[in-house]
Structure prediction request, 623 residues.
Amino acid sequence: MSISGSHLAVQRHVEYIQSLDTQQDDLEYWLTEHLRLNGLYWGLTALHILGHPEALSREETIDFVFSCQRENGGFGAAPGHDAHVLYTVSAVQILVEIDALEELDRRTNEGRGKVARYLANLQDKQTGTFAGDEWGEVDTRFLYAAINALSLLDCLSMIDQQKAVEYLQACTNFDGGYGASPGAESHSAQIFTCVAALAILGKLDLVDTERLGCWLSERQLPNGGLNGRPEKLEDVCYSWWVLSPLAVIGKLDWIDREKQLAYILSCQDTEKGGLADRPNDMVDVFHTHFAIAGLSLLSYPGLEPIDPV
Amino acid sequence: MNLTKINYEADEKWADVVPILQQEGENSLAQIAYTDEYSQATSYLRAVMASNEKSERAMELTEHIINMNPAHYTVWLYRADIIKTLSLNPVKELDKLEAISLNHPKNFQVWGYRQSIMSIIPTLPPKELSFLAKVLAKDAKNYHVWAYRQWLVEYFSLWPTSEGKGSELFFIDSLLTNDVRNNSAWNHRYFVLFGRNVESVMPLDIFTQEINYAMAKIDTAPQNASAWNYLKGILRKQKKGAKEVEHFALQYVSLEDESKIRSSHALDLLAEIWAGEASDKACQALDLLSNKYDPVRANYWQYRKSLIKAAQAA
Prediction:
């Protein structure tokens, strides 16, 4: 492993992502089966930001996405897995990313309407939040995922948006952040989901941007890295979870950009490609994606811009 | 983890079941590599689920798969279904869960499953809180465990009526005594005191009590963001401003003698208190923060200063 802190090793990272589906002999590979469709989204998005959208086959990508779709319209993590909102949003995002949303209407009977109905049915009519699947666990991650996918499908009118907004409001905490449910501790990733959902619903005026920006910028540590909660270790995935809501509320300049850039670059493996949670750790596609997305938010030269929502 | 290989095809008990194999497209992308044992077990699970079989052997099958891959969420849900259908003893199931919960404390399914089993139990099982204490002793900031504990507080109405032994406040205090920087514990404190859905009657001195509590904890570690955030949260909830803690914060700050500055959070709070009537001092505090005590957020502190300047000019 070789670490370098000055430039993004674009070519190495592209090769790393391409190599992911050829490592099927690894134990790790089948243990992460439950994340397969998410993994494809992370890899593909990283490639798009790196300017190499062609590095994965478009046809094979589309075929794989559809092989994960279930009877009820939702998508599972992999073929044969039950549908869940987190995989359904990845499926929709992938199709949008490679401009293949019309495949939904072409390949399936009821097309995007069926996917949208699956998502809309996950909303709890009383509280406004969303369950992850038909079994009912709730979390603002699911709410964001459903709202994002419904918005991409242009079907937001199928849900009670006002109720969803009220629920998001109830997740605001005494420290200015947001948690996974009303009363749950503020966490950078949950803040991303709540703020992004409010942005999609056109309700950013409800965000106390000064207190939230203060809390988010407090996540930067002297070494430049960002953490998810006070007194926790830094991790490169927070380069997305913290920077994205800061970008949405227009306070990205409240963190030290140079230090954060240097931190992200120090997490890359310049020899074999990929980025890790911290310098010298093992790389994976999750951290590779969030690190590159964070660099894009910070306008790192040569990268495609990413929408923070 | 069960290390003995289980072979369903060779087991007479399963002879009547025709396993349903994974249907996999020919596409190479993201194809899944399984071990034989896992692949066989899940083939039998598909068969059992297809015929909606709720039985003792199906229970064993779900346990086998969970041990190989606790992140397989469908299998957890099916197991909960079996327990409810067969009216199996839920408390016994919780005992069974203990080992896997301690081995995979960050697994989402383990805690969602626990909640679904707990919700068919009418009163709080006596061992539950000591079990949670054990999990939190391994990782006192585990987000799933805290979310679950909040659900438990609401479900069994464990809202504190005192700070006595066995109460939520007593437990939180023991965690904060152990690590005063445990932000999860601070959050839980706020939740149990102010998080009730129904507007309950709060003791009149609850704000005084909590302000004093936070100040005492801050004094043990003046550079601890969590305790200061809690203090600010309580002051905000009280809606009387922060003036009453000015004297307290000044213990950790001196604008005349920088060697006496022991807390950037005290500087921050004082800058907020001074912003109105003592704006020069507020600006001085903000400059100290951006130049010396928290330079990583220099832009934020300068923004705060610009607000004061703008108010002065208006």
